[in-house]
Design goal:
With 211 residues, the protein is of the alpha+beta class. 35% of the residues lie in helices and 18% in strands. The mean pLDDT is 90. One of its GO terms (molecular function) is DNA binding.
């Protein structure tokens, strides 16, 4: 993997080891939970997204508690990485961007990473984790005999070499990528509207034929 990274980054002069920017890592907690139950909501793997924004829409709940449970609640600004998933999706990263008004637990398959934010923009890092560079690295760095569920640990995070330019450049890159994501989202919405119109035309045609 190091040889592959050296080739990919051969023309880039701002390659750094992610471990130099990590202050702390913490795994979440996964108590017994039920779908659509009562108690405290718990996030799942499905809430990670390639656009780097964590989707806050939990469907599982737990009534179990423990000492220092507050340490397992998400907060706005948290940076999470998926600790386990398929070989192609392991180590997806997302940031909690919305304001959190209730207690929500992040599970054991989440790694919460505290970063030096004076040098590294969280959203930039999330997009890089989810990019070709990140997918390739974690595909080969992850561990597990069962290829349908491989895992990473903090050591794979610390050993990740990646391009980290000046933080203002990082923020500019994030803005440009976000503009493209927003444009794609608008196109997707238009496609859905047109698909609904087509479905309506088909339904009316069938109804008229039957009548």
């Amino acid at each position: 993997m190091q040889h592959i990274q050296n080739y990919l980054y051969k023309d880039i002069d701002c390659i750094h080891l992610l471990g130099n920017f990590i202050i702390d890592t913490k795994n979440g907690w996964s108590p017994l939970s039920v779908e659509g139950g009562e108690g405290i909501p718990i996030l799942g793997q499905e809430h990670f997204s390639f656009d780097g924004t964590l989707k806050i829409s939990p469907s599982k709940f737990t009534e179990v508690t423990k000492k220092n449970i507050d340490d397992c609640f998400i907060q706005q600004g948290d940076f999470f990485v998926s600790r386990g998933n398929t070989v192609d999706l392991v180590a997806l990263a997302s940031v909690v961007e919305e304001e959190i008004s209730e207690d929500i637990i992040f599970p054991d398959l989440y790694i919460k990473i505290q970063l030096d934010e004076t040098r590294l923009d969280k959203k930039y890092l999330a997009l890089l984790f989810n990019s070709f560079f990140g997918r390739l690295y974690f595909k080969y760095a992850s561990k597990g005999k069962n290829q349908t569920m491989v895992k990473i640990s903090s050591s794979e995070l610390y050993d990740f070499y990646l391009p980290i330019p000046d933080i203002e450049i990082q923020k500019t890159i994030v803005k440009k990528i976000q503009a493209q994501i927003d444009a794609q989202s608008h196109i997707d919405q238009e496609i859905e509207k047109n698909r609904a119109k087509i479905n309506l035309i088909i339904e009316e045609a069938i109804r008229n034929t039957v009548e």
